[in-house]
Design a protein that fits this description.
amino-acid biosynthesis; Rossmann fold; six-stranded parallel beta sheet; oxidoreductase; aromatic amino acid biosynthesis; alpha/beta; 2 domains; NADP binding
Length: 249
């Protein structure tokens, strides 16, 4: 038993006891016989605590990064992958043999892989609800799929419209609506983005990055109008497996 090499992995975020990642990787390590591998939550109140996590966790080989640190963690890293640099957000960190921290983005990959099977020729443009780190991976994936998009935020800016601008014409022009905000996440399951849901149709896709609950109010309201719906579980699984490959390079 003494010959087993310890490898520790973990999730960095705030208020993450609900998280998918710890259960997913713990099951993976048990089921696939990765002896010595463990996965834990590093729940930190602010990003300035991040260096202490790295310093005080021996055998740490890789980390996942979640809300609200996908952008804030970047200054603490030694290097970024080309795509993480372009996206401007990191959700996966690999710790090299020399102890250097390299940031990657596997969110965009997971989102792209899970959205593609839903796409039909009439799905031409997308609305991205939210402008945080998660939305950046979504936007990058849409760029790769050649799908134009517009950001929606609570306040209008040079790069986003606000929710009051969304009307029937918007739904005519945008056939994919993506919730990249945390609105509706457990335990706040009664919350939903403020949209005119009556304008969803069978020609629309409603995609929610949230996976807990499995069907948010956003998805329920869109489905009631006939829209095709998808939650974030497949995206999470795809990005997690991509992260696992990166950690084991």
């Amino acid at each position: 038993m003494d010959d087993i090499v310890r490898k520790r992995f973990g999730l960095v975020g705030r208020n993450i006891s609900y998280s998918f990642s710890k259960g997913y990787f713990t099951d993976k390590f048990n089921n696939e016989n990765f002896a010595g591998c463990t996965y834990e939550n590093f729940d930190i109140p602010e990003i300035n605590a991040f260096p202490e996590v790295v310093k005080n966790t021996p055998d740490l080989k890789g980390m996942s990064i979640t809300i609200p640190y996908k952008e804030a963690v970047i200054p603490f890293l030694h290097k970024l992958s080309k795509k993480a640099l372009l996206i401007g957000a990191v959700n996966t960190i690999r710790i090299t043999k020399k102890g250097k921290l390299k940031g990657y983005n596997t969110d965009y990959y997971g989102f792209k892989k899970s959205l593609q099977p839903l796409l039909e020729p009439h799905h031409k443009k997308a609305l991205i609800l939210g402008t945080g780190g998660a939305s950046k991976g979504v936007a990058f994936a849409l760029d790769e799929l050649n799908i134009p998009y517009t950001f929606v935020s609570r306040e209008a800016s040079e790069t986003a419209i606000d929710y009051s601008r969304i009307n029937a014409t918007t739904f005519d022009n945008y056939q994919i609506i993506i919730n990249a905000t945390p609105v509706g996440t457990s335990p706040n399951v009664a919350a939903f983005p403020l949209l005119p849901y009556e304008f969803f149709t069978a020609k629309h896709i409603a995609y929610d990055l949230i996976y807990n609950p499995a069907e948010t109010q956003f998805l329920q309201k869109a489905a009631a109008q006939g829209a095709k719906t998808k939650n974030g579980l497949d995206m999470l699984i795809f990005q997690a497996e991509k992260a696992w490959k990166i950690w084991n390079k």
